[in-house]
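Example complex used in Figure S2.
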Amino acid sequence: MITLMSFLVGGLYAAAIYMIMRRSIVKLVIGLVLLSNAANLLIFTSAGMTREAPPLIPYGALAPEGAVADPLAQALILTAIVIGFGVLAFAVVLIHRAYEIVQADDMDQMKDTDT
Amino acid sequence: MQSPTLLALPIVIPLLAGALSLIYWRSRKAQRIIGVLGSSGLLIASGFLMEKIWREGTLVMHMGNWHAPFGIVLVGDMLAAFMVLMTGVSAVTTAFYALGSVSKQHEHFGFYPLMHLLLAGVNGAFLTGDVFNLYVWFEVMLVASFALLILGGERAQMEGAIKYVTLNLVSSAMFLSAIGLLYGLMGTLNMADIAMKIGELEDTAMITVVSMLFLMAFGIKAAAFPLFFWLPASYHTPRVAVSALFAGLLTKVGVYALFRFFTLIFPFEGTLSQSLMVWIAGLTMVTGVLGAAAQFEFRRILSFHIVSQIGYMLMGLALFTPLALAGGIYFIAHNIVAKSGLFLISGLVFRFKGSYELKELGGVYRQYPMLALLFLICAFSLAGLPPLSGFFAKFMVIRAGVEEYAWWLVATALAVGFMTLYSMVKIWAEVFWKEQEVCHIKPPRKFRGGTRMMYATVIMLAGLTIFMGLAMEPLFRICMMAAEQLMDTDGYIQAVLGVTP
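Predicted assembly (616 residues):
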């Protein structure tokens, strides 16, 4: 499972970077979506995957018995997903407005502020 | 352990002020009053915080009384307190300047709530003691900065914003990936806890990988070479008040994070990171100042100088002695003051002359001698002439370089200082000294209330840079204390976790 996830995460990063380097701003945003998802899955993978062992503490005990899945990693991912969603919503509005104003979705047309 | 509530105030006050200004969304007047009160409150609270830390040493606040390493902690050491204080200074100047400069339309688009949110994010990043929490504050800061950047919706702003947003999101993704890997390695995200356990780890190759990821992520945020391209492409596009706030604070958060991570968490001295940092510092200085030399637009020149000044701060980190770190810290504070001042002056020039292009400007000295004097003070401070704050900032890092026999770095820093002076003289000659060529010279405008307010803030910043130069002794002690606390990782761990490693 770890191997599979590793390849998946690597593939997502590669796809994301490829998309970001395209000239179209729509593809740029798709790249950013993939990138944030790749990072989330990376946390999920690297924090260790434990199957079918929810982190529940038996009645009367102070600590869970045996190895359980780490709930913190999932809390981190949840936070990161929410933040990523907000930021991407902004990015989508931004490229829409940029498209309206610049009248092009080509990064090569947006060189006015470059130096 | 007691939990000093004072530590949370620099975050709570701007959040509260931001929420209040959202409630009074329709009332400009209320938002302006809240803007001034909120930022002044922030400055006062940060002053008290600094004084308390000066007396009692590092303060730690366990959020919700969940103790470290399980809960999130706010940690206030001297570095964090000093940075928060400078944020307060920056907040007050921006709030007052905005009274005069931000148009009605932009106030209706939510300038004030966004400003407060940005300040909360910046202060949160300075004060947190948890790696993931740092990421969250970074994002709070970023989202606010995105919206502030496109306030106005001009073409240049959109183009600048796309580059700014993309590179900052890439940097955030790297930061997040690094956090994921670090958590996989350590099983904890509390900075003190990581610092304590990282020495026991056998997989040093993995630590290098993670530290390089953090270096990249914070390098983008701090606009270090070769990752700075988003900065000169975007910082000259927003409103001046926003530019000044960004120039003062945003990149410094990246530098602060580098200082924190590479003193506390990762082994630095004699590692790959240090030799890289030496190069990064030198090249950042040089490329920034050369970029500025090629520019002929007021705010673009200043934007490139931000990059070049970041190099000096990183030089302080690269040399890694107490004096060098203290120099770096003092440099951050000096730069916040001088650079914000210069940006605000460019806004005043724009108000009088209607342009930022050096070619179209001229004759400001004849019409507004006071403004010219203020520019000279800030520009000389940036270039590093005594007795202004810039001189002592450069003196400290260069002296530390001499002590470490880092001759190349010292030579670079000195040469870049001269180049900075050249850039400032260029602005002086073009904007203030020469006669305006185009004949549509407007007669000097009468000062309205707004302009007077803008003047007052610039005078305050220019005064502060003189004061920081003249009151060097106490400031030096503060910076040395911050630097010694940074070097003393055991003290930090002891303060947060209550155990001696």
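Chain A has a mean pLDDT of 88. Chain A has one domain: 2-49+70-109.
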